[in-house]
């Protein structure tokens, strides 16, 4: 991922930071997208993680 962020960083931002988009995830980690080349990948990671966050919130 760009800016040195990993999929684990993004997943944590979704689960613990309450973000619900790739843009929010990057901003919560301290930077926005630079060139946007990683946007699709980051969006996929966020979309994969959102159901887990919803399950945790329901517990």
Task: Offer a quick outline of the entry.
With 59 residues, the protein is mainly α.
Note down, in words, how this protein is organized.
By secondary structure, the chain is an all-alpha fold. It contains 3 helices and no strands. The mean pLDDT is 86. The N and C termini lie far apart (31 Å). Helix 1 (7-17) packs across helix 2 (22-28) and helix 1 (7-17) packs parallel to helix 3 (39-58).
Distance separating the two termini: 31 Å
Q: Give a quick account of the main beta sheet: strands, pairing sense, barrel closure.
A: none
Specify Rg, calculated over alpha carbons: 11 Å
The sequence of SSEs as H and E is HHH
Helix content: 55-70%
Topology (elements, then pairings):
Elements: H1 7-17, H2 22-28, H3 39-58
Labels describing this entry:
59 residues, mainly alpha, 64% helix, 0% strand, globular
């Amino acid at each position: 991922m760009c800016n040195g962020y990993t999929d684990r960083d993004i997943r944590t931002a979704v689960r613990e930071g309450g973000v619900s988009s790739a843009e929010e995830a990057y901003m919560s980690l301290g930077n926005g997208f630079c060139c946007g080349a990683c946007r699709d990948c980051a969006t996929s990671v966020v979309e994969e993680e959102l159901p887990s966050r919803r399950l945790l919130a329901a517990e």
